[in-house]
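Workshop exercise sheet. Pairs work together: one partner reads the sequence aloud, the other fills in the structure field after running the prediction. Swap roles for the next sheet.
Pair: D.N. / O.F.
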Amino acid sequence: MAQAEIGVFGGSGFYSFLEDVEEVPVETPYGAPSDSFFIGDVGGKRVAFLPRHGRRHQLPPHMINYRANVWGMKSLGVTRIIGPCASGSLQREVGLGEFVVCDQFVDRTTARRDTFYDGPVSTHVSAADPYCPTIREALVVKGRDLGITMHERGTVVTIQGPRFSTRAESKWFSSAGWEVINMTAYPEGYLARELEICYANVSLITDYDVGVGDDPDAPAVSHAEVVEVFEKNNKKLRDLLFAVIPELDGPRECLCATALTGARF
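Structure field:
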């Protein structure tokens, strides 16, 4: 099977940035991933791209097989993953088209298969600091070099989907001080940690969530709005990935690489 060093989860447009891509189907013990993996070269690194919703965006967030997707990356040899997500802003100071490199998550999903460890050995992997500090730093530095407004930390609350928040829910999330809301950040990043893969989330802000601000009559978030802003900023995301990926090299000295140490009973 083809091998890769770096993984990227994202929309189906990412792999089209590469001129020469190998399509690789992958089987996993957890069922089928969202699609084939697309492997190509970025700055001398072999990179595996996977459209998390499928290449035709046929999988809504709550139907994505996150375990198969992450396991597939591991089986290809991937040790570092970047997970871009279209996201809503929960704070006015986090503006449209800006990027948030999250350092925390809050899980508000239900019934998602969010662990590889169902027994018989009890395994409890810490999520205290859930995202790779090394990749996060590289994203922030390179993004600012490119002139992108980068928020170097933030909390993403992941909701179940496919519905958007009510005004009351959005106001609750905003009042808690959380910065970002989306439907796919969990359990993707945590599953990577369970397999000792470095993972960083970069949230591209496509809209203000409906409860943000003082206007009770503000229009609701629409999928069309999200897609429009995301497509306008796709080039910025592409430039960021192509700048960061060649820099992800050398031994992994972060907590991600040893996440299972002391986690089993």
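Discussion prompt: Residues 99 and 150 are 5 Å apart (CA to CA). What would you look at next?
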